[in-house]
Alpha-1,4 glucan phosphorylase
Amino acid sequence: MANANGKAATGFPEKISEKANPEANEATEIAGNIIYHAKYSPHFSPLKFGPEQALYATAESLRDRLIQLWNETYLHFHKVDPKQTYYLSMEYLQGRALTNAIGNLDLQGPYADALRKLGYELEEIAEQEKDAALGNGGLGRLASCFLDSMATLNLPAWGYGLRYRHGLFKQLITKKGQEEVAEDWLEKFSPWEIVRHDVVFPVRFFGSVQINPDGSRKWVGGDVVQALAYDVPIPGFKTKNTISLRLWEAKARADDLDLFQFNEGEYELAAQLHSRAQQICTVLYPGDATENGKLLRLKQQFFLCSASLQDIISRFNERSTGEGTRKWSEFPSKVAVQMNDTHPTLAIPELMRLLMDDNGLGWDEAWDVTSKTVAYTNHTVLPEALEKWSQSLMWKLLPRHMEIIEEIDKRFVQTIRSTRVDLEDKLSSLSILDHNPQKPVVRMANLCVVSSHTVNGVAQLHSDILKDELFADYVSIWPNKFQNKTNGITPRRWLRFCSPELSDIITKWLKTDKWITDLDLLTGLRQFADNEELQSEWASAKAANKQRLAQYIERVTGVSIDPNSLFDIQVKRIHEYKRQLMNILGVIYRFKKLKEMKPEERKKTTPRTIMIGGKAFATYTNAKRIVKLVNDVGDVVNSDPEVNEYLKVVFVPNYNVTVAEMLIPGSELSQHISTAGMEASGTSNMKFALNGCLIIGTLDGANVEIREEIGEENFFLFGATADQVPRLRKEREDGLFKPDPRFEEAKQFAKSGVFGTYDYGPLLDSLEGNTGYGRGDYFLVGYDFASYMDAQAKVDEAYKDRKRWLKMSIMSTAGSGKFSSDRTIAQYAKEIWNIEACPVP
Ligand code: NBG
């Protein structure tokens, strides 16, 4: 039934016949696969084949291919039975999967052609996909980059997480500032996940401990919910290996429904367990200001740990049949468990419980296995982010685990008392349980350090701070336990796929595309950094990315920005230590100076577009005030006819992985300006540098190493160093701080009412006074402001010299090789996990 255009009624070209061939790699055949799925894996009524239908059908055609590779990988690992790593993380910021899957499978051309045959551009279809935003920020995105590298390096590894129905909230910007709206990635469905109906484990909450006649203990009673596995395929780049991200969903069983009560009309009562189970995976990071919120968050953490460990143990035991029973002492030579921050700490007592109570091991044996299996990555030194759980809450929810934690603590304290008398007076801070009568808590980081075979920080400076300060006394007990693993990012998503223009230029000049998996090869660009031809190609790729970004900004904010201005970006979660406030105060000062200038003076300045984006935690008031201030400043500056040719200020709404993929390639300057010692690493700094964006920043986190790698002449450095910070805070307390006049001028101007009627008093007051909670400028904005403004002046000068700027840009990319997550993961594999590649033949 062809219409006049030679198309079937559904809009498919008639000459392409529907197929289901997972191995297709030629355009017509792929188009046939897409039509096949549109027809026979339908999720929509059959009349329409719009962009959304095309997305799902395209994803399903790719999924066939991935499933094939996935099964091969799974079987291969099963056969070879290597030691495997299990990465436990409460967060994964996967973003979109389509472009990444097509790219990793190396099917970019054929897929673009196939879709064109169906009347679509690949980009248009890719844009239909919603981000899987199961994380907050850097920590979650790091986990996702790690999965990509594990697959690419053919490592036998799994990611474990939770299947939140609503990921990180959507940020709306209204007159009031930031408003949060529930995120909806599963509102229709995700084409990438596959439910494994045979992978289900019971997870208990509450209840009590039963002591058996033989003295052994068993956790009984309480609520039991089911953990059901949803697997997401993680393809490696140009390799068959495709590993799994296993996300747990909480469910109750049919017979948990009280039919009698239901028929009595007591619907809510009848389905209590169903509704309690459903709550577990409803949202990422439920607010924990209330007791209920805390309980839910703790349930989530335990749910992840219990389900994952039961799964890991069952895989370990799978091998037993026919080959004799495996000895538990072999467990650590088959299993490495990595805890991504303290969120999965309960893996420790849960593994102990499963080994002792379910499998009959004694304490010493169970402890030996557990402590040789688990390792812990610390991601922050901020005291408020170091998790402490109330002991009473823990006793209520996890009575058996609290017994185990008490025992671990008791034995640790005994050992220290008998072997390290010198640490006796430190025990109150080293012990796991804090018995402070006001608020007895369990210190999760201490539990991790005591129980793990290895503890690592995420950048050299951060790891040094852990060793010298936060964990210094532990270092004296276990000098070999502590390591550094500087973070990294995947060069596939963060350069090859998000900036194909720049990637092609790099490949052309290096005469190979091997840099995509061997990022150190980028140093080969250094010899051409002065080359005019490369510089002009580089500039045109950057210009194209800036143009694309400008269109995006206009579309989402209505603000038109000049692609010839310097694109200056700060995007990250809004937090006082990250100092977006310093950025916007700098903008305010710049605006005031521009206003004071004569028109001919303005013409001599470097036009800038300053973009700031990021989400504020819903209950973090000062962060929300910062968002409001940036928006208000933008409204005034952008509509000021004298100034807006030279300065624009844009708040980029709803920052997420996909927005980052648009912003980073189009950036020229990015700001990583945290108070020294407070940002554990940062990872967007690496993404920007890799994309030839220059950094203005402090000596904090991975900035230190980036500057070392790309050369100090290519980095705009300012600010106090981490070791000066305590002294500067002390001086401030003693009333010795003398602010720079520019700082005072910027604050006065902000308070003057030019930016509207909103009361910024409470925000700006945090910069005043010398002591007191929320005062005394704890983050040293005032102290660093002077050197920050000086560094900004150097940026303006450097940008005027186009050749110099381009050279610096090329040198940034050329020096970014170290920051590949392939390097990071190879180090974890060798130095912490002791696992080896297991490539599918
Ligand atoms: C964050 C740090 C970042 C770091 C990421 C990834 C937490 C607790 N920490 O500096 O703030 O880059 O972890 O390591 O989210």
